[in-house]
Amino acid sequence: MAIQTIPTQPFAGQRPGTSGLRKKVTVFTQPRYLENFAQALFDVLNAGGAGGRALHGQTLVLGGDGRFFNRSAVQIILKLAAANGLARVLLGQGGILSTPAVSAVIRRRHAFGGIVLSASHNPGGPEGDFGIKYNAGNGGPANEALTEAVYARTQVLSELRQSDAPDIDLDRLVLQQVEQLQVEVIDPVADYAAVMRGLFDFALLRGMFARGFAMRVDAMNAVGGPYARAILEGELGAPAGTVVNAVPLEDFGGLHPDPNPVNAEDLIAHMQGADAPDFGAAMDGDADRNMVVGRNFVVTPSDSLALMTAHAKLIPGYKDGLLGVARSMPTSAAVDRVAKALDLPCFETPTGWKFFGNLLDAGRVSLCGEESYGTGSSHVREKDGLWAILFWLSLQGATGRSVETLVREHWRVYGRNYYTRHDYEGIAVDVANTLMEALRAALPALVGRQFAQRRVVVADDFSYTDPVDGSVSGQQGIRLMFDDGARVIFRLSGTGTEGATLRLYLERYEADVAQQDQPVQQALAELAVVAEQVAGIRVRTGMAGPTVAT
Ligand code: VG1
Ligand code: CO
Fold first, then answer.
1. Is the pTM of this model over 0.85?
2. Coil, strand, or helix at residue 187?
3. Ligand 1: which atom is nearest the Cα of residue 122?
């Protein structure tokens, strides 16, 4: 075994997006593509790119969502890690670790950081997507300064350092050696399960299942399966079969592991009808997203965050109250109303979990959420699908109320924020950019403009100044805010791998209980018309409507 120095050339476009570097598998499997990115990351970290300490002699956590190329990518990264001075890698068995589990392991074991191999909710398989993301010592996604430094490094890289050692055994829970690097294969679930035990009343949950509470969790053939099975069926005594599609498959069995009513239609179908279970839930590819469903009733992620905030004191891990809450800008303002009532600080951040890290580290917030089916708390530094499911299960156990009753009561007290997201996928990149530029240029003239009974009070391009480190992130989404609290937001996705995806977010507030039961798309139809009038999406893209509306 020897460490070799291999010449390489930069690949264009290795810039991480909303959540790491995501590309087609066919791109990632080009010789030296993954190697280059990992080498650039190690170079930046060894130069003190994560707060001054070098990576040399440190411990890194490594695992992924089990998608196609996961196992090969692990072997590649280990060979580079061994040649770049790491002392130890904690590797999830089989190369498996969910995103929240990576975060939990980094924090519990005081690791230097971790690498997540996942393209999250993007489809997998040889024709699908792959991804890689670095998480820092706090367990959270690297900040923009670090990801930009890694990108810059990829553009000038000329050498790889890697070991020519043979592949290691990913599946046995033993200590192995690659050069001087120790690779410890760990149980992917143990650390994560310990964190959950510390937050929730497992005895209460066990009692619910003992009394016949029926639940269906769809893991969508992705990485959440082993976690949900071990905790729900193993520790909490839910009947076998409570977790379906529970074995992570390289192509997710052809499913699109994005837990929304469109992609998780099988779960939605099971939650309809008289014999439906009490509670349904789904997770995404890397198990950081969640969808919560009651009998004949789907919970909007923005409402979920608001409701969790309102009831947090019922959960042992949050019984002393919350420090504050944060939501991404496009997420509905439902949580703002709860925060106001509870006198809690409430922050609005750009899209992407990395922006919550500083607020969590500084003790300014306890719960965070995004409209894209992501909720989480200070227990890790990622959104966490199974945590959210256990939270909702606990709320039902503590109150004796159903999902639907909990949400309807919430609307009665706080009002309802009707909310939808329209995705226009696969737009030509230049068409999407021109659309956004035209909108930006039109902003000054939009302020004060009247659309039917509403008037625009704010029209801007969202810019965020991190209250902890003062860093500024501009151009985070175009907002039209109206005098009645309604909002229309436009932004381009930063996780796609084909063309551009335009996301249109629509929201309006309804205080009148008698008006809270309209079909969502109907309730927001007027705002969709305004969006079209302002942005000309259909004219510019030639699309008759969104590809997905959730
Ligand atoms: C999307 C979501 C965003 C989420 C991100 C990563 O990003 O909108 O809220 O944080 O995915 O989630 P974008 O840039 O495509 O809108 V995951 O579960 O894919 O890591
Ligand atoms: Co995800």
1. yes
2. coil
3. 19
